[in-house]
């Protein structure tokens, strides 16, 4: 399963309460669509840290990194690239 698939599965199971139905596009805003609130963002942070082994800094918890499948996948890729360097 690739990164975007893992994110979609997590969001579907934990926020949409559906293992199968993920109707949001990868660039749809979690906040604007009402999928994730501030507590949900913290759950996403824990998911990223536990699943991908990256450390999320407090200053990195912002919509530019955590507000869509695309943004979250790009953030994870940047963090993994830094860890690998």
Give a short synopsis of this structure.
With 85 residues, the protein is mostly helical. Helix content is 55%, strand content 0%. It has four helices and no strands.
Which properties best describe this structure?
globular; 4 helices; 55% helix; 85 residues; single chain
Overview of this protein structure:
By secondary structure, this protein is mostly helical. It has one domain (3-84): Non-ribosomal Peptide Synthetase Peptidyl Carrier Protein, Chain A, CATH 1.10.1200. The chain contains four helices and no strands. The longest helix is centred in the C-terminal third of the chain and has 16 residues, at 69-84. The radius of gyration is 12 Å and the shape is globular. The chain starts with a helix and ends with a helix.
């Amino acid at each position: 399963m690739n990164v975007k698939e893992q994110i979609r599965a997590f969001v579907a199971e934990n926020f949409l309460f559906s293992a199968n139905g993920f109707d949001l596009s990868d660039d749809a805003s979690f906040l604007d669509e009402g999928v994730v609130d501030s507590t949900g963002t913290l759950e996403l942070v824990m998911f990223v840290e536990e699943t991908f082994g990256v450390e999320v800094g407090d200053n990195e918890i912002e919509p530019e990194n955590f507000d869509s499948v695309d943004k979250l996948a790009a953030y994870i890729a940047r963090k993994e690239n830094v860890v690998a360097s």
